[in-house]
Design a protein that fits this description.
The chain has 287 residues and is an alpha+beta fold. 40% of the residues lie in helices and 23% in strands.
Length: 287
């Protein structure tokens, strides 16, 4: 992550940073017990989830609330405020997104219905925040953000624009083996260097969401999972050659040793250091 700022004031805390993910202006995590926002505006879209407690706010002269199963989307340039709606305050996670992710044509729909009860969307936004907290996982974050944006647009798009289908209908993935194979070839060519979703769409003419869905549908694994699997495979070989984990991390495209350790342990079940040590003595030798 880049340019992280953390501040504490009594029981309140704030952590903010700008990730290396196109379209994300800022990530903002906060715990407020009593602080109330005055009326203000943002130039970016505000995508908000509350993990603990609840927030009440006014938007376009209407009162709204954010229980923990809700995703709230506040449009740019529209005044709003915010204050705790529960005695212990609230804990929230916010993404500020620019117009490349959500266009101004959706502002009216967001003003009319900013709070979305959508369990799948809520889970995806939470997964996106998790990816954004880990430097080196930008491909995962960008892929998850693409699917979040697609679902937000489907929820906000007027029903007339999509026929008689319900706005929260899940779109059936369309198979596209040619696109999937080309993306896999790109990932294989750039295991160490990595590949952003923006770069991939420039090399494989397809919408980012279709690129992710086509790959996952063809191979049963998301593009970022495939890339990390390839990197871990390379790391295993280098570790067995005797190279230390820090050097292996740099040689296989991981952000740092901690990044290698997290993915290595997830896929192999042990840390790189323990893996490198080889088998423990069996104790079955002669007395």
């Amino acid at each position: 992550m880049a340019t992280e700022r953390t501040a504490r004031n009594g029981g309140d805390s704030v952590c903010a940073w700008r990730p290396r993910v196109p379209g994300v202006v800022e990530v903002f995590h906060a715990h407020f017990t009593q602080y109330a926002y005055p009326m203000h505006v943002h130039e970016a879209w505000t995508l908000l989830i509350v993990d603990d407690g609840a927030v009440r706010y006014d938007l376009d002269r209407h009162e709204h609330g954010t229980p923990d199963d809700t995703v709230s989307l506040l449009p740019p340039h529209v005044p709003h405020n915010g204050s705790p709606a529960t005695p212990g305050g609230f804990r929230k996670r916010v993404l500020y997104l620019d117009s490349s992710r959500l266009g101004d044509d959706l502002i009216g729909a967001a003003v009319d219905g900013p709070d979305l009860r959508d369990p799948l969307l809520r889970r995806r936004v939470g997964q996106l925040h998790t990816a954004l907290t880990h430097p080196g996982d930008e491909l995962e974050a960008e892929s998850r953000l693409t699917l979040v944006g697609e679902r937000l647009r489907a929820r906000l798009r007027p029903r007339a624009a999509v026929g008689d289908a319900p706005r929260d209908a899940v779109r059936a993935p369309r198979r596209d083996p040619v696109v999937a194979r080309r993306l896999r070839e790109l990932l294989d060519e750039r295991v160490v260097e990595g590949l952003t979703l923006d770069e991939a769409t420039g090399l494989v003419p397809a919408h980012p969401a279709h690129l992710v869905r086509a790959f996952s549908g063809a191979y049963g694994i998301a593009p970022h999972q495939y890339l990390m699997s390839r990197r871990v495979d390379r790391a295993r070989r280098l570790l067995l050659d005797g190279q230390p984990p820090g050097e292996v991390a740099a040689a296989t495209g991981f952000y740092d040793q901690a990044h290698l350790t997290r993915h290595f342990k997830r896929l192999v079940g042990v840390t790189p250091g323990r893996y490198r040590l080889g088998p423990a003595p069996s104790g079955d030798g002669p007395d």
